[in-house]
Request: fold
Amino acid sequence: MTLRNTLDRIVRLLLVILMSAIVIDVTIQVVSRYLFQSPLSFTDELAGFLLIWVGLLGSAYATGEKQHLAIDLISGGLSPQRKRQLDILINVIVVLFALGVLGVGGFWLVYTSFLFGQVSAALELPLGYVYLVVPLSGFLIAYYALDNTFNGYQRESTLVSE
Reply:
């Protein structure tokens, strides 16, 4: 099993667990609010934190599956060679953004959150754990973009030649 397959399986499993946790959390929130007229204070905050994790990890997984948002207006009329060059340029920009903004910036956010001891209001959870998904997803996005650039084209050319 390759590194890519292992990462895909881990991220998929984590996304399923997180989405299940959101469903359970929101169900508990609705039941406690409407049946018992006493909403639990932590459920709203937990749902927000889980949504952050699902959104960022989901965007990393979507990058790996080449299912992220794309505007193909420019690439539609290009030759295959020019389209490949454009794809490489786009992936380089994605890698730079993912490593620079999400990776380095996210690491700094996590570090300062732990340094200053920031905790959430209801759960009293250190916010560094919540923000940890930012650099994690940044590195995953960068890895997936690089893998799609180098190995993705090798897989596509193998399929075309068969």
In short: The helical segments are 3-34, 41-64, 80-115, 127-131, 133-161. Residues 80-115 form the longest helix (36 residues). The radius of gyration is 20 Å. The chain has a mean pLDDT of 92.
